[in-house]
Amino acid sequence: MALSDHWPLFGLRIRTPSLELRTPTDADLAELVELVLDGIHDPATMPFVTEWTDTESPQLERGALQYWWGCRAGFSAESWDLPFLVVSDGAVVGVQNLTGRDFPTLRTAETGSWLGLAHQGKGIGKEMRRAIVHFGFECLGAVAITSGAMVDNVASRRVSLAVGYEPNGTSVVNRRGVRTEHIRYLLTRQRWEESRADDDVRVEGFEACRAMFARGAADPA
Ligand SMILES: CC(C)(COP(=O)(O)OP(=O)(O)OC[C@H]1O[C@@H](n2cnc3c(N)ncnc32)[C@H](O)[C@@H]1OP(=O)(O)O)[C@@H](O)C(=O)NCCC(=O)NCCS
Q1: Whose C-alpha lies nearest to ligand 1, atom 16?
Q2: Which atom of ligand 1 is nearest to the CA of 114?
Q3: What's the CA-to-centroid distance between 9 and ligand 1, angstroms?
Q4: How far is the CA of 122 from the centre of ligand 1 (A)?
Q5: Region 173-185: what's the mean pLDDT?
Q6: CA 119, 125, 130, 131 torsion-angle sign
Q7: Whose CA is nearest to atom 6 of ligand 1?
Q8: 218 CA distance to ligand 1 centroid (A)?
Q9: What pLDDT is recorded for position 221?
């Protein structure tokens, strides 16, 4: 039997006209680490609330691997972090995350993402976000999807607005010791449904995964 027979998330595929999103195998993680080492952002800026890219090599690579392995190991129906590998023209270009907490009750998930520097500014960010919100609403039955971006992260903020999220308040975070505004965004199911006429996202392999998201599914006791 294949690993995906025991862990159906490995068989999940979210496709757009030019992208494939899938849960990364260990071989995929090796490619992702290379992408991280090639750079995600100008070191003068910090787009992430968790300042993980400030870590020096080799702890950067090891910490990233431990984070991705931890996402797999920590999965439960109630609480999950799903980092989807993003593939464009056969090349690994970045990660689109979807995170749920107490999801069967709250039915709200949070998106987060990054692309390797060489792949930014080409429309991939918007396309992969459209893909993940389709998955969250259509497959998981979310009622709302949220996101957040530093006030000076114009690209991320424009992705949220282009996909239909609306501004939903501001929090403040400690970024490298400086008080910084973090803009919150909200996409409701109703708003997504109103704008999905041209939805071209397709999901394969979800039926095998569905039971993993059912309440109590990860509790063998
Ligand atoms: C944020 C990120 C995922 C966006 O993906 P992307 O592929 O670069 O963005 P797109 O090409 O889809 O562009 C999205 C919008 O932002 C605009 N944009 C892209 N790069 C920009 C830049 N450097 N400055 C200003 N606007 C920019 C585009 O014109 C587009 O706007 P539009 O919808 O009004 O036409 C990507 O830039 C990235 O990985 N950045 C570093 C990590 C990061 O910031 N992650 C998010 C943390 S919240």
Answers
A1: 155
A2: 39
A3: 28
A4: 8
A5: 98
A6: positive
A7: 125
A8: 36
A9: 43
Residue-level pLDDT at 197 = 78
- Which residues does ligand 1 sit against, CB inside 6 Å? 40-41, 47-48, 113-115, 120-126, 149, 153-156, 158-159, 162
Percent of the chain with pLDDT over 90: 94
The rounded distance, in Å, linking the Cα atoms of 158 and 202 is 24
How much is the pTM? 0.96
Report H helices in 44-123.
59-73, 103-106
Residue 80 burial by CB count (10 A; 0-12/13-18/19+): exposed, middle or buried? buried
CATH superfamily of 3-213: Gcn5-related N-acetyltransferase (GNAT) (3.40.630.30)
Tens of pLDDT, residue by residue over 116-164, are 999 999 999 999 999 999 999 999 999 999 999 999 999 999 999 999 9
